[in-house]
Amino acid sequence: MEFGCPVNGCPHKEVIQWQCPQHNSPFYMNAMCQQKCEAGGHTGSIVDATWACKHSFHNGQNQKADPEGFALALSRSTELSSKVGAHWVNTLVCEFGQQYAKIKASCVIM
Questions:
Q1: pLDDT value, residue 1
Q2: Nearest alpha carbon to residue 95 among 11, 14, 32, 13
Q3: Residue 41: left if φ>0, alpha if ψ -120 to 50, beta else—which one?
Q4: Residue 50 phi, psi dihedral angles, 5° rounding
Q5: Residues 49, 32, 109, CA angle at the centre, nearest 5°?
Q6: d(Cα 37, Cα 97) in Å, to the nearest integer?
Q7: What residues in the chain have per-residue pLDDT under 50?
Q8: What is the pLDDT of residue 45?
Q9: Strand (E) or helix (H) holding 86
């Protein structure tokens, strides 16, 4: 998974290749907000995940992302759209919002 830090308020703006802290291997995600560790095979919801980039903002603590922070992080990753397509990214952001039960009515999946 490559996108910026999704924690609202974190000033780190660069795209990050997110790694599983347990196995130091890449995480992958699908459009239904599920992530999977490449090495360990464990899965989970992105909504339940916690995040911490290398910025001192986190003080070494993982934090949950909110829909706004997550959408902003994805929007900064133009490479993500070119790799998987705008429809996939739209589905992902809408699913993320629906799982948070905040932005259900505003999502239109093409």
A1: 75
A2: 32
A3: left
A4: -115, 155
A5: 130
A6: 23
A7: 103-105
A8: 87
A9: helix 86-100
pLDDT for the residue numbered 109: 55
Q: Is the pTM of this model over 0.85?
A: no
Rounded Cα–Cα distance for residues 37 and 33 (Å): 13
Cα gap 77→11, rounded to integer Å: 15
Q: Please list, in sequence order, all residues whose beta carbon lies within 8 angstroms of the beta carbon of residue 22, skipping any fewer than 6 positions away.
A: 37, 40, 42
Helix (H) or strand (E) holding 29: strand 27-29
Query: Residue 100 in contact with residue 66, Cβ under 8 Å?
Result: yes
Q: What does the pLDDT read at residue 105?
A: 47
Encoded tokens for 19: 């790694």
Domain boundaries, the chain: 2-106
Angle at 68 between CA 67 and CA 73, to 5 degrees: 100
